[in-house]
Each structure stands twice: as structure tokens, then as C-alpha cells.
Design brief:
279 residues; D-Maltodextrin-Binding Protein, domain 2; two-stranded parallel ribbon; 11 helices; 11 strands; 34% helix
């Protein structure tokens, strides 16, 4: 099994020529997938060096602004403020949507809940419910395990639920920390990328992925259900972005072409993400 931390650097060749070195930074949601794509890309493109790091969508976007990356992986679109910063610095970007992800909400395997509706989830994560009793009948405090505010996943969940997160929510560095926290907490709830669970985590029987019901009368849907995602029935699914400065395009275009190739699309799907129909 591949072990990843929230910051992962992968150097795939010793070549030091900058025009053959591709630096990818950003979303922890995408970092597992990015590593696998880079490994397979290098297998047939050994003249390139690929460096990958996570840390959050905001960090990747900031790295582009500072000239420290060629590709920013992001699980959210640019904010208006970020667009203004790029414009002010004269940086023109190309935007690629290279996969679709679903955010999974997790509890311990023995937690007395299998599905949850969106309004109840909003009450829990905002802190309006500080106890599980209205939801499960059990008198237990609600302990929230989430991402830091610069995370695209944090922003995505907040906007989809139309909430501000509870001040008591624990801000973790990445998916692995969230899963570990929930595994150890009988009253914990957290959110992670479904792709992270599907890739390399299936043997972990200590957590449960909750099905989500958007509203009363609508069936609950799992983020691990490929058919539901294809039909856009899961409430917390989203496109995954890559932002690329036009000055880096010539260097990275061969890597982007690999992502869109049948081999790249197969890797995306087998890693637990959902493919995009490229025109």
C-alpha cells in the first residue's frame, strides 16, 4: 500500500532541466490520483521530472500566483478574489476539468446511523445540533472532523449546506487525519474524498460511509455508487480542476494529454474517481 501524508513530494527522475520539470501542487482530494498518473506517465516519458505536493486547493492556487507551480490541482473553482489576483499579476490560466469527485461523510462502523438528510447534516456541521440525541436518540456530543479553511473540500461542503462550520469543528490536515480521528471517536463525523476511501482503503472496516438524502421523499444515495454519480444524483459531487498558467502550457501539455488518454482515463476510474467526457 502506498503511504501518503498531507504533503507528498514525488520526484520521478534526476533530470534538473526546468523545462522538463513539472510541479503540481494543491488539493489533497486529488493527490493520490495525481501520484498514480505521474508514475504511469513517467513510465513512457522518462525525460520528465514530476514533483507533486498536497496541502489544499488554496495552497496550490497560491503556488501558481507565486510562480512555484506549473499545475494547481483544485477541488473548487477560483474565487473572485483569486481571479482578481491573477489578473493583477498578468497571469493567464487555462482550466482543465479532469475528473469528478464525491465527498463522503463518515462515522465509525458501529455508529447507529446509515443515512442522513441534508438539512440534518447542516444542523450537525454548523453546530446547531451539538448532541446526537435529536438524530439517533443517543445522548452523545457531536464531534466534527473536517478540513482547514483553505481546503477546497471545506469550501465545497460549506457552500452546499449553506452554513458556516461550527467553531468546535476540528480542522485536520487531510483525509488520512480525518479518517483516523473518526475511527477513534464513537461520536465523530467527518468528510473526506470518496476517491480516497475507494483507493487503498477498502480493507478498513472501522468506518462507515453515510448515504445522503437530499430531501424527504428522495432515496438516499451513496458517494460510492458509480451509476448514481454518472446520473448526477449524489448531492455532494463536484468536478476536479487543474489550473495551468499559459506560460507552462507547452511544458505540461504532454502530461495533460496523458490524463485524457485511454490509459489515463482508466487510471482515474480505477482510483475511485469518475471520468469526464472530453471533447
Amino acid at each position: 500500500m502506498r503511504v501518503l501524508t498531507s504533503i507528498l513530494i514525488l520526484l520521478l527522475c534526476s533530470c534538473n532541466h526546468d523545462y522538463k520539470t513539472i510541479k503540481i501542487k494543491g488539493s489533497d482530494t486529488e493527490v493520490n490520483l495525481a501520484v498514480i498518473l505521474a508514475e504511469q506517465f513517467y513510465a513512457t516519458n522518462k525525460q520528465f521530472s514530476v514533483a507533486i505536493s498536497g496541502g489544499g486547493s488554496g495552497l496550490g492556487i497560491a503556488a501558481l500566483l507565486n510562480g512555484q507551480a506549473d499545475i494547481a490541482n483544485s477541488s473548487r473553482p477560483l474565487s473572485v478574489a483569486e481571479e482578481s489576483l491573477f489578473a493583477a499579476r498578468g497571469i493567464t490560466l487555462r482550466t482543465i476539468i479532469f475528473a469528478v469527485d464525491a465527498t463522503a461523510f463518515i462515522v465509525r462502523k458501529d455508529f447507529p446511523l446509515d443515512s442522513i438528510d441534508v438539512p440534518t447534516l447542516a444542523n450537525l456541521l454548523s453546530g446547531r445540533y451539538s448532541n446526537w440525541k435529536p438524530v439517533t436518540g443517543k445522548d452523545m456530543p457531536v464531534n466534527i472532523y473536517g478540513r482547514q479553511s483553505n481546503s477546497g473540500t471545506h469550501s465545497f461542503v460549506s457552500k452546499k449546506l449553506n452554513i458556516e462550520f461550527s467553531r468546535n469543528a476540528k480542522e485536520m490536515n487531510g483525509n488520512a487525519q480525518i479518517i483516523q480521528g473518526v475511527k477513534m471517536d464513537v461520536s465523530g463525523i467527518g468528510y473526506v474524498g470518496a476517491g480516497y476511501i475507494l483507493h487503498g482503503k477498502q480493507e478498513d472496516r472501522s468506518i462507515k460511509v453515510l448515504k445522503i438524502c437530499e430531501r424527504m421523499g428522495v432515496p438516499a444515495v451513496s458517494p460510492l455508487d458509480e451509476t448514481a454519480i454518472a446520473d448526477k444524483k449524489y448531492y455532494f459531487q463536484r468536478p476536479l480542476y487543474q489550473f495551468i498558467p499559459t506560460t507552462s502550457w507547452n511544458k505540461v501539455s504532454v502530461f495533460i494529454s496523458f490524463e485524457k488518454s485511454p490509459e489515463g482515463q482508466k487510471i482515474i476510474k480505477e482510483s475511485g474517481y469518475y471520468i469526464v467526457n472530453h471533447k
